[in-house]
Design brief:
single chain; 627 residues; alpha+beta; 5-stranded mixed beta sheet; 3-stranded antiparallel beta sheet; 10 strands
Length: 627
């Protein structure tokens, strides 16, 4: 129901509240549903006088009702103006600038107390409003007293034996007020940037005691503390540049104003960033580039698709698209990627990387047919899907569910959680709800703390606690001492570890991972054979690799990586050679280019000319491909 339906405003006689809308009304004359704005907007509707022209005029309102609404709005405007004037007069009183029309009104009960303040009220102030007025004056004086105390604090401690003169009225006022306002003022920094005289005096007092470094440290720390800036930002390259620049500039240089920061200097930074991006664009023409597409949904439920461009060790953010109101099918994704390719330059794009969503897969394959480029799925996402497929197996899901049962039981009971932290010396990593690799991290954490957790469940405190007598408590205790369960967990963690090692490498941003994906997958398969993983696990890995991740680009990058090229059997591997020729012929279909590439490939394979130099041989295993 709309708020205010039971109020005293006469306009409620001409409308009804709109159900389901707190400030909604329904006009009695035309039936218009006004979903927001309350009774004031209804008055605009009936009076035809909305100053912003945002309210539809009622076509059926009687003339007398229209005139009544206009009078009500006029009265409300006058009341608002009067209230604003009264508040301004109160502010003027607090500033000590009241006009002649104010006079002293002293409450009889306050005359008897000689140390109470005498208050001056506006002539037309209602007696019921004086209490609130007095509190405002007292709060202002308390604030003024706090500032005086801060100034006194920064002037340093007074010498022993020195005191204020008995006849000094200002000291007497401070003493009387300090009895009523005993809260200590915060030791904030003085304003060292005000007037020249105050600046010199404050600086002298600030640096009088203690080292310069400590004093500067305190001044800088106050900015971090009182402006809620994370202390880690002190390691920022830009913060250190700011301090160094201020030291070099010397005294007399004022800091920029907020307006200058958000206009002048922001514009300068934008120009610098634009120049940097243009510099990166020149690399795209020389070395080619990869377009990366990443979609996510934020806290506001907006669906955002980001586009980044990678080339020779540098990644730049190109743009983002709000796709909240779009159907994200393969046609829409194809159109977006097509526009990005045109923006970057069709001849510059070597590869497009997206996640494994069906719409992205279909769009990527369509782009490969239209352009001389490759689409590949995100390697990290593919491996995460391997974790998901393994976790769906009933036997594995049961192991993960029991592990989650143990951690949830501990974390849902404060006493048990405190006991666990005391014995184990820390927390257990809890399984995540979305990232499947966190199941491995959680189970590994349980394994590491298993011995200490057993100490908790064999202690006298546990056996005497009421939790040990609950059904779930009995079940968790049984799991903790179930050797068969922990043997299965150890086996699962060892299999997960083989995948997780690869996931961490391909998900890192230290070096390009394209030249290593093929090798890492082969190593993963070798480790699974060594661990004697079951066939269904190997089938999941092989299916994901063959169906999504296996790609000519990965094979070609492996073949052209000097670290792997000179291993036995690699240089003459027909599958790898076929992948290399397939990639080059697609990216550069020119016949002359293919001929030159074939000759250079033979020199590279046989380590002749420059490829056989001592420096080239020494850097095979050290240099990152692409440098």
């Amino acid at each position: 129901m709309a708020s205010g339906s039971g109020g005293r405003d006469p306009a409620w006689r001409h409308c009804a509240p709109l159900e389901g809308h707190r400030n909604g009304t329904i006009c009695n004359y035309c039936g218009l549903n006004i979903k927001s704005g309350g009774i004031t907007r209804l008055k605009f509707h009936l009076s035809h006088t909305d100053p912003n022209s945002n309210t539809k005029k009622c076509p059926n309102v009687p003339p007398e009702v229209k005139q009544e609404m206009r009078l009500l709005l006029e009265q409300k405007g006058k009341a608002k103006a009067k209230k604003a004037a009264d508040m301004e007069e109160i502010r003027a009183e607090l500033r000590g600038t009241m006009g002649r029309k104010h006079y002293s009104l002293i409450d009889d009960d306050e005359e008897e107390e000689g140390d109470e303040d005498v208050h001056m009220y506006p002539a037309d102030m209602h007696p019921d409003e004086r209490d609130e007025y007095r509190e405002a004056v007292r709060a202002s004086k308390a604030s003024e007293w706090n500032r005086d105390q801060v100034a006194g604090f920064m002037r340093g401690k007074r010498k022993i034996g020195e005191s204020s003169q008995p006849g000094d009225p200002s000291r007497r006022i401070q003493r009387s007020q300090s009895v009523r306002h005993t809260d200590p003022s915060p030791p904030i920094a003085p304003s060292l940037y005000k007037s020249s005289a105050a600046k010199q005096k404050s600086l002298k007092n600030m640096y009088k005691s203690g080292s310069i470094k400590e004093t500067m440290g305190r001044l800088i720390s106050k900015f971090f503390i009182y402006e809620s800036v994370p202390p880690q930002k002190a390691d920022s390259h830009h913060f250190k540049n700011m301090i160094f620049g201020a030291q070099q500039a010397g005294m007399g240089i004022e800091p920029p104003s907020p307006y200058e920061i958000k206009s002048k200097y922001l514009e300068m930074e934008y120009k610098d960033m634009e120049d940097y991006v243009n510099l990166q664009r020149e690399k795209w023409e020389t070395y080619g580039c990869t377009i990366m597409c990443d979609g996510w949904t934020g806290p506001t439920k907006l669906s955002i698709i980001n586009f980044m461009v990678y080339s020779k060790g540098s990644t730049i953010f190109l743009k983002s698209v709000d796709a909240s109101e779009k159907i994200k099918d393969n046609k829409y994704i194809y159109g977006l990627l097509k526009d990005v390719i045109k923006e970057v330059g069709e001849a510059n794009v070597v590869q497009i990387v997206t996640d494994n969503g069906s719409a992205f897969v279909k769009a990527g394959k369509l782009l490969m047919k239209k352009y001389n480029l490759y689409w590949t799925p995100c390697a990290a996402h593919c491996i995460d899907l391997m974790f998901e497929d393994i976790g769906k197996r009933d036997s594995v899901a049961q192991l993960i569910g029991n592990g989650r049962k143990i951690t949830n039981f501990i974390y849902n009971h404060g006493w048990l959680l405190a006991k666990m932290r005391q014995v184990c010396g820390g927390d257990i990593v809890r399984p995540g709800a979305t990232r499947f690799a966190t199941n491995y991290i959680a189970l590994e954490s349980l394994l590491k703390k298993r011995a200490d957790l057993k100490k908790v469940f064999i202690s006298n405190e546990w056996s005497s606690h009421k939790l040990s007598r609950t059904v779930v408590g009995h079940e968790v205790e049984r799991l903790m001492f179930d050797h068969q369960y922990w043997e299965k967990v150890e086996k699962l963690v060892s299999i997960y570890e083989a995948l997780y090692t690869v996931l961490r490498i391909v998900d890192s941003e230290v070096v390009p991972t394209m030249p290593f994906v093929y090798e890492l997958i082969q190593l993963m398969k070798t480790n699974l054979d060594r661990l004697k993983a079951k066939e269904w696990v190997k089938l999941i890995i092989a299916d994901r690799w063959d169906r999504t991740l296996k790609h000519p680009l990965h094979a070609a990058a492996y073949y052209l990586n000097p670290k792997f090229q000179y291993r036995p059997g690699v240089g003459c591997n027909p599958e790898l050679l076929q992948a290399v020729h397939e990639v080059f012929s697609k990216l550069d279909p020119n016949s002359d280019g293919l001929c030159n590439f074939g000759n250079e490939l033979i020199l590279f394979r046989d380590a002749k000319k420059g490829f056989g130099d001592r420096a080239a041989i020494a850097s095979r295993s050290k240099m990152v491909p692409g440098d």
